[in-house]
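Table S2 (continued). Query chain:
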Amino acid sequence: MASRPGRVNERTDAPGPLLRRGPRPLLLHLTLAMLRSSGSVAASARWRTDWPLSSEGTAPLAAAIAAVLAGTGKADPEAFALTALREALLQDRALIGGIAAYRSHPWRRDLADPPCRWREGGSRVLDYGGAGPTVLFIPSLVNRSYVLDLAPGHSMLRFLAANGLHSLLLDWGWPGEVERGFTLTDYIAGRLERSLIAVGEPLILAGYCMGGLLAVAAAERRPDLVRGLALLATPWDFHAGEEERAGAVARLLPFLEPALAIADALPVDALQALFSLLDPFGVADKYRAFGRLRQDSDRARLFVALEDWLNDGIPLAAPVARECLAGWYGGNTPARGAWRVAGLPVDPGALALPTFVAVPGRDRIVPPESAKPLAQAIAGARLHEPAAGHIGMVAGATAEAALWRPLLEWARGV
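Corresponding output:
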């Protein structure tokens, strides 16, 4: 009897076929790991005991290896280089093993979508039900919206709906021919605003990451339709503490123009490569750690769920990509008051409504220094700083305590 795709064969316990493509872009992550290993091996071959250990990143490891070798009476360059080579091979083997374990893991997301309340083009508003204040969640344009409805026990939307909020989700969908010509004005003053009108009641607008910027602009444009604002890990000052990195991202735009011209969008793998610049070796490190987990554990299943979502990205319309890279990252237009939607400046200081700003302290995608200015700009905003990361705050193992319950408590009082 043939086994079903992605499931363990019931007769032999052999893993099912490889159905995943991640981590994306795979070649980039393998290349970065190779360069890291090759650099370590090359440097170790020229190591001498009298050299200063100047690199903060490599000094502890080099000192530890030297100490071990000294204890064995083999503190010489050849022994050091051989030990470094063995460690590099073990690291590479662990990375490949972690990737293979992920790609053959049997877990699959099987949550059914709730009813659709409104639809336009590839976008729709999903209604998760619940009694109480209505909250419409706005995700980023470059990631699937289901990170907020990830898996049983890890769904912020289902938790809130079951505990006193009427939860709605704007799923942007895959950009078709029409959407690939959209600007940020088209998304905010067009599609987002029409979704607010379709809901038909003043509601709390909750934006996650990039979605928070869209929510700020929409709330300022339509205060008659928005009674409260929740901004979750939302960047605003793109140069705060990261000006050089933001400038480096903006300078990549000319190299991305051929892809933008061909597809009228920034492809998923190009977007993933840009995110990799934030932490070049982080993906390899987490896959090595995953390979050491018991694969039938809750922790392993949550890792797979989050990685499946991360690797299931969405292309970004070319006009929006240019506006974000050149304007937000290059020109820091939001913080400078130069970002305009439908010709009007977006000014969070002009907002006069209850606001909840969540700034996770371990966020590597949106540094806290970038997100906190929103809490400072909006009068009376409540600043919440959970000890969590960008994604862990909304869907991780501690998300209920880190964000869901504090957000629920705040929203009930709006």
